[in-house]
Amino acid sequence: MASTISRRASMIAANKSVSLKKYIDGLRKKQQDDEDYAKWDITQPLPKLPVPDLKLSLEKYLRCVKPIVTAEAYKNTEQIINEFSKPDGLGPKLQEILIKIAEENDNWAYDWWMNEMYLSNKQPLPINSNPGMIFPKEYFPDEDAQLRFTARLISGIMDYKCVIDQKELPIDRCTCREKGQPLCMEQYYRLFSSYRIPGVDKDKLVNSTTNLALEPEHVIVLSRNQMFVLDVIVNFTRLSDDQLYHQLKRIKRQSEDDENTTSAFANLGYLTSMPRDEWARARSELIRESTNRDCIDMIERCIFIVCLDKEVKQSSNKENRNDDEIKSKKISSNVFSNSTNCNENSINGYFNGNDINPISSSMTLTAFQMLHGCSSENNSGNRWFDKTMQFIISEDGVCGLNYEHSPAEGIVVIELSEHLFRYMEEKRKQKLYRMPSICELPTPRKLRWKIIDTISKWIEKAKTDFDQRIEDLDFCLLKYSKFGRDFPKKVKMSPDSFVQLAMQLAYYKLYNRLVSTYESSSTRRFRHGRVENIRANSCEALSWVKSMDYNSGFTKNQKFNLFQKAVQYQTDLMIDSILGKGMDCHLMALKQIAIENGFDLPELFTDKSFDVSNHFSLSTSQIPTTMEGSFMCYGPVVPDGYGCSYNPKPNYIIFAISSFKSCSSTSTKLFAESLEKSLNEMYDLCIEFAS
């Protein structure tokens, strides 16, 4: 065993790419030359996540509840909070227990948050949980180009994995509020070592062993809905780009030869699109056979998954609702009143307004391909959604990934992807040594399942249900080009707060009310930090959006003053969240402590207002990318809600907006139009009054 570990350690050292070392050293030097970075001692452990003050958290809770519930409900909630927070009440007792837990653990919120946010959620992973990320489109004149790019991608990922495994990746730093402060890197270490196992009651997130002798040496390649084991390390030696290319070509040929035959052993991936408890039951049935247990084991232990997709000819949900369907929606029509900028055309899932540049339908199709594979007629069966990282490379040059969300946040996946592509480009420009012939390499092993009738029925049901959910997704991309993130900065406002308030105004224009809004904020300044919630549905936001109504009677100057107050409150809330003073994780912890310690569940958590406040009809996040044409997208988190990711560039903003067609009270097209109008009005207001 010792000699095996020694040989593997030597292999890792030998396989470290000279070009990658040069690239990483360049990143490290750039940090060392930055005065803000240099003042921080990165050898010191990160601070623990602080426990917020109970009184302040309860005050924040009341402030976010007040704009979204009735006056009567709010009064009742206020009384409940007063009782809960009394010196002899249950609140201080639970707070004391939490403080003790925080002293004994690196991060008091992590496990509770992981269970509530992901592992206890029974919803299917695709659309509902797994985001899709779109990479810049590649040009593949033929199949060889697709496979050679895939080989370079696999090789680049393996180079990067060596750096991650050795924890030599330069530490990420804060770019604002204590600029240069080191950030927790634990999420990177899970990207290529994690797997989510479905459970009837709760899923389980497992990490592969760190024992060098047992490290996985293969990736799983999906082609034509079939799965193959591609060994990337053979006899302690990494395969070269050429060797990977030839192995991929073998896989592609066999999958094409076996397609639609009894030798296909295809379509097992549909099972991972099921509700988690249903997939757990199907999995238990599946692994009764030792052959299937071996197949599942190979998938669970692989480093990552590569999906070689067919070119998409059409998408199941390629068109949004027609005008008659939209008019039947139960949505206020006042979004169109006094509007000169609304455009009635919505074609193939993208919106083209006066101040929105048309994003081609092919980009929307690309988003669908990364989110769900487009349909069973296309690539939806060419996935395995439980694996953390799935890299998708289509015959027509469409590329991206789908990732299982529980191990890491989107910004970490983006950072890794962008570093990877920059490194691949630098590596491509260099003349590299070609490895010897691949004639001695064994043909990649195909996963051959033993499928009984029960499993066949599960697969068919999963396939049908998945197609229905794909059809139900109402999605569009907006490229708002009147301004980008530079304009709010110019008028001395936070770009993120500016966009968040635009979404509040857009929603209010449609529904004459605000709703509970989720925006993730990173807490990576702290040990094992993940996210906290920034709630944009504030009292200040409500006062401002009401003033923006055409018949409100407010002067433009009054509207601008209210807007400034709303922006400031939103910005203060954002700062509190990233500094560990958020409300949501705190209340979640108090609830779990009550349950785990045998207390009667406090009325705070059975109150209707608590349910309303945690029903996120707007699920949002800022997901900035630097690669041109790259963005991330996801679906709504509740049946009657919207998902809205946004990528603010200097001079434009990309929005990826989603809802469900089956909901009678939502329309992605109308929300997009309302958002456009809101941004225009905010621009005009700021131009007139901002100094």
TrEMBL record:
Domain of life: Eukaryota
Primary enzyme class: transferase
Active site: 405
GO CC terms in record: cytoplasm; neuron projection; synapse
Keyword Acyltransferase annotated: yes
Record domain Choline/carnitine acyltransferase: where: 49-677
E.C. number(s) listed in UniProt: 2.3.1.6
One GO process term, biological-process aspect: acetylcholine biosynthetic process
Alphabetic keyword roster: Acyltransferase, Neurotransmitter biosynthesis, Transferase
GO molecular function terms attached to this record: choline O-acetyltransferase activity
Annotated Pfam families: Carn_acyltransf
Family: Belongs to the carnitine/choline acetyltransferase family.
This protein's name: Choline O-acetyltransferase
